[in-house]
Amino acid sequence: MTIMEVSLLTGFYPNQDDLKQLTSDVERYAFQYETKTTSSDSTVVLYLEKLSHEVDTVLGFRVHRMLQAEFLQAAQVMVYDYYEPSQRCSSFYNLPTEHASLRKICHRDVCRCAEEQCPSSKDSDHLQQEQLQAAACEVGVDFVYKARLESVETSASSPYIYYNMQLQAIIKSGTDSAKPLTMKKFVTHATCHDSLGLQEHETYLIMGQTSDLWRVKSEYTHVLGKETFLMHWPVDGAVGKKELLDQLEGFSEYMRTHGCES
Fold it and tell me: Locate the NTR domain: which residues (predicted)?
């Protein structure tokens, strides 16, 4: 037996007639359903006899909005085996927006928009010092850090992933008056984790936009978005990376000495 749990977006509730039709003798997509509802959130649980891994199964029901939430967090759909709950998979969804590339990232009571498109690591082997300097001094670039990834925070119930990084060097200081060796939190969508491929205890060059800064009280969290410049910074002595390291060190020294000269 397969269980499908559909968490609804905040402020929405399911159409009961549609759920009854899913379990009717005519349709019989599911043999039973139940709803779990609080003051603002609802979850629909569908009980299926089986679910094919070869043929697509489409289940649908209408939902109605009862509350207008300013920021909608993505909601989760989870499928698992009733007898072996550890065999499960999940995905997140949200309403389409006028700008489909925008989602909301929320931390505690603070929310902000973040671009759905994942940041991409740069092809570092062909970057020269002059190109790095030009990128660091582009309009809108607020900060440039050399940072070491210490740990990664993930949760099956959250659509976001947090990277805890220690700042090794402040190559270009910006709005956040961060100091070397302090810890900073970077956030992106969980779906970006595999494509980013960031590894714990590895070091990275990160250039972020002013719009990437997200202030919570007196601290800043940095959003890794489409415009974030991100590349791996090899360790000293890495095989075949001497030229790249020379370019990075030259870039870092130049920026600390000259900055962005107008």
Answer: 118-260
